[in-house]
Amino acid sequence: MNQDCIFCKIAAKQIPSQIIYEDEYILAFPDIQPQAPVHFLVIPKKHIESLLEAQPEDSELFGHVMSILPEIARQANLAEDGFRVVINTKHNGGQTVPHLHWHILGGRFMTWPPG
Ligand code: AMP
Ligand code: ZN
Q1: 41, 62, 81, 95: which has the fewest C-beta neighbours closer than 10 Å?
Q2: Which residues have CB under 8 Å from 71's CB, separation 6+?
């Protein structure tokens, strides 16, 4: 755990969040500033600064997240109309919290290209 990291603190339950999914690898909770009617964040419990810092030994985590994301989307009733999954990475990607996270956005049409 990184003591200065807000998402590590959420994973350690030092900062409360409304956890909608949790297992040994990951945690999911609503984004505090939702950009869509449904906006969840999925974070690894392990501190990984961004996609660029992920290591080969994290491949199990990545496979796991990919299998759980559609389950979370189904639970949130996003399966019929669809949804978007985003990993903002570093400055140009718009990453503001330096702990890897997946955004799940749904409940409205998502434009393309993104802003
Ligand atoms: P990003 O800009 O991709 O790094 O995404 C970080 C996201 O974390 C933003 O959408 C923030 O609204 C969200 N966020 C920051 N602090 C919290 C928090 N304490 N609980 C839930 N979401 C948060
Ligand atoms: Zn962290």
Answers
A1: 81
A2: 21
Q: Find out whether 12 and 47 touch, Cβ atoms under 8 Å.
A: no
Residue 98 in this model has a pLDDT that exceeds 90: yes
Task: Quick: pLDDT tens for 18-54.
Answer: 999 999 999 999 999 999 999 999 999 999 999 999 9
88 CB near ligand 1 (under 6 Å): yes
In whole angstroms, give the CA distance from residue 28 to residue 65.
10
Written as six digits, the tokens of 47 are 């501190």
Is the distance from the beta carbon of residue 87 to the nearest atom of ligand 1 less than 6 Å?
no
Give yes or no for residue 28 CB within 6 A of ligand 1. no
Count of CB atoms within 10 A of residue 76's CB?
19
For 44-58, the pLDDT digits (tens) are 999 999 999 999 999
Task: Give me the active site residues, please.
Answer: 101
Residue ranges with CB less than 5 Å from ion ligand 2: 2, 5, 7-8, 47, 99
How sure is the predictor about 79, in pLDDT bands with cuts at 50, 70 and 90? very high
